[in-house]
Design a protein that fits this description.
Strand content: 5-15%
Largest sheet: 3 strands, antiparallel
Structural class: alpha+beta
Distance between the termini: 20 Å
Shape: globular
Number of domains: 2
Helix content: 40-55%
Strand order of the largest sheet: 1-5-4
Order of helices and strands: HEHHHHEEEHEHHEEEHEEHHHH
């Protein structure tokens, strides 16, 4: 979130999640440099494009040298402390871009910058409150999913305004079609979408998880049923715009029936929420549904009317547990 030219925010997020297990509120730059550099090194092994700059940043070069056995671990840590945190600590809480409606800083801060006074950062009560929540276990998966989406687009040289992410129904993966018509698998659909439903079932709001083997593992559901592909009246039913995460119970009960009309507003809210956040799937959603709120609203309405006319009946959960999506008239 924000105008990013490198993947350092992802590396920092993954590092903070990892270090939270220690329980300490103060983290020195030397301690932070260990997981930070390791995360960058691991991603560089499968994607060399971790920055949009034409030249290779010095820290990225040091990580590459470490992967090649050209420098030792201590040298990499020292380089990371010196070069790795110059901008990312200041920028981590910045969201939006200049001119965006959500331009500014996050309302909550997860750490304070104490580099000058103590040589590190101090985790806040809000960070530990987050760490105690049900969704904290899903955050590492979400961080990796968004990181994979960004680096894949950069690696393939796909401009942000033409990137289009597709969904593989059988494998549950999001993928990008390359210029040579081959495909590159990117990440799990569950991991990419979970944060934008706040870890809740789209329909009943019960807690869901993206951890394999979990009893509450989320299922990827086609909001407008996948079976409608047979009539070919709705564009791209496998598009991200039509994919939501549901609990096992709702997904099985809904089956091949479109949801009740009130859930269409919820889908529109979710899609606009994702677009306004500058998520890596932003351009895909715009390409699939429209470049303005009005056009997206019209696209969803037309698609829904076509689905209801074909399937006749609609479905809704027996009970909803709280609320997740606030409804704004502008959405």
């Amino acid at each position: 979130m924000g105008k990013n030219s490198a993947t350092y925010k992802f590396a920092l997020a993954a590092s903070l999640i990892e270090l939270s297990a220690g329980g300490a509120d103060f983290i020195s730059l030397e301690e932070l440099a260990v997981p930070f550099s390791r995360n960058l090194r691991e991603h560089l092994k499968h994607s060399g494009k971790q920055s949009t700059r034409n030249d290779i940043p010095s820290l990225i070069e040091a990580c590459n040298q470490s992967n090649n056995g050209e420098i030792d671990e201590q040298s990499l840590i020292e380089t990371t402390v010196k070069l790795g945190f110059n901008n990312v600590i200041d920028a981590f809480h910045v969201i939006g871009r200049k001119g965006d409606t959500n331009e500014g800083n996050t309302p909550l801060r997860f750490f304070h910058d104490d580099r000058k006074s103590r040589g590190g950062i101090t985790l806040t009560d809000d960070f530990f409150y987050l760490a105690e929540g049900n969704q904290f276990a899903s955050l590492p998966h979400e961080v990796q999913a968004r990181w994979n989406l960004v680096e894949t687009a950069w690696e393939l040289g796909i401009a942000s305004n033409v990137i289009d992410i597709e969904y593989d129904l059988d494998g549950g993966l999001l993928y990008i079609l390359r210029k040579d018509t081959a495909r590159t698998d990117v990440t799990s659909c569950r991991d990419a979408l979970n944060g934008y439903q706040k870890g809740r079932c789209f329909y009943c709001f019960i807690d869901i998880s993206v951890e394999s083997g979990s009893d509450s593992l989320a299922q990827v559901d086609h909001f407008l049923p996948h079976i409608l592909k047979r009539v070919r009246q709705i564009t791209n039913l496998d598009g991200v715009w039509n994919l939501v995460l549901a609990c096992r119970n709702c997904n099985s009960r809904k089956s091949d029936t479109p949801p009740k009309v009130e859930f269409l507003t919820r889908l529109n809210t979710r899609n606009n929420y994702l677009i306004s956040s500058r998520h890596p799937l932003r351009e895909t959603l715009i390409n699939q549904t429209g470049d303005t709120r009005a056009r997206r609203h019209s696209f969803l309405n037309k698609s829904y009317q076509s689905a209801v006319a074909t399937r006749i009946s609609t479905w809704g959960p027996i009970e909803e547990f709280g609320t997740t999506f606030s409804v704004n008239p502008e959405t």
